[in-house]
Amino acid sequence: MNVLKKIAQATVAFLIGTMFAFVVFHSVFVSAVKLPTVEEIQDFDNVSVNLPAQEQNALRKSRNSTVRIFSEFNGGISNLSGTYFTAKNRYFVLTAMHGIIGDCAQTKIWSPSGFTECLQFVALNETIDYAIIELKGEIPSKEPIKLPQLVPKGKGWERALAAQNKVFYTGFPNSTGPLTFSGNIIGYMEGDYIYLQSFGWGGSSGAGVFTCDGEFIGYLLALDVGETEEYGVDVLEDIVIVVPAFKIDWTTILN
Predict the structure, then answer these.
(1) Which of 146, 179, 202 lies at the terminal end of a domain, its last residue?
(2) Same domain flag for 246 and 162
(3) SS3 45
């Protein structure tokens, strides 16, 4: 009987030990395979650690400063991308003018923290197709860049616009996003337009473009359009036209 009792005790001890080991293993395993939250994945600072530190910094500037603009008029709504920036303790958004169809009261700036109101249109430039919108306050979920400080100066533009320089932009193509794209400078054309090999779609207009070292070089204007006798007019979705930032009259916000 003593032998049976000892066997029973040993069996119970073994089972308890096994269950304890299983609980510990299960806890460690679950902890190891636990998926991140959607918010953690979408975090604007969640950029590839495989990129050089300088490019990671440029990506964060692009992602943290991007906003979406809604402009409404007579029941129609236009969607744009834009860049949130600060100057002289005021807060602004730079975007393409062709998507501004309503007045300031009908223009809203969207970010993950909600909508921010337009205070005034500081600049509406039809010739170069840009709008500068002053906001009623800060956007809590975003980090504004400082403009025009981040714009290349003088001969710095030659380096910034060199062929095959890598660039980044973040926007809302096809009402989706924010999505972050990379690309390369493939040309600089008459009329002072930068050409990128990247991707664009409706809703991308107005997105700010950053070089891989974090300089702000311009905003998306349009996609290139090709025309042939055989195939007619076609949109080249992988050739993106950018307006260089030196064409913007920055005195409108600095005076």
Answers:
(1) 146
(2) yes
(3) coil
CA-based R_g, the chain, Å: 26
Q: pLDDT tens digit string along 103-122?
A: 999 999 999 989 999 999 99
Q: Which domain holds residue 102?
A: 65-146
- pLDDT below 50 — which residues of the chain? 28, 30
pTM listed for this prediction: 0.84
Which run of H or of E encompasses 19? helix 2-33
Cα–Cα distance measured from residue 245 to residue 101, given in angstroms and rounded to the nearest whole number:
23
Read off the pLDDT of residues 134-178 as tens digits, 9 standing for 90 and up. 999 999 999 999 999 999 999 999 999 999 999 999 999 988 999
Q: Which residues, 6 or more positions from 49, have their beta carbon under 8 angstroms from its beta carbon? A: 56
**Rounded Cα–Cα distance for residues 93 and 82 (Å):** 6
Which pair of tokens denotes residue 220?
Answer: 């998306």
CA dihedral 198, 91, 193, 47 (to 10 degrees): -20
Position 12, amino acid: V
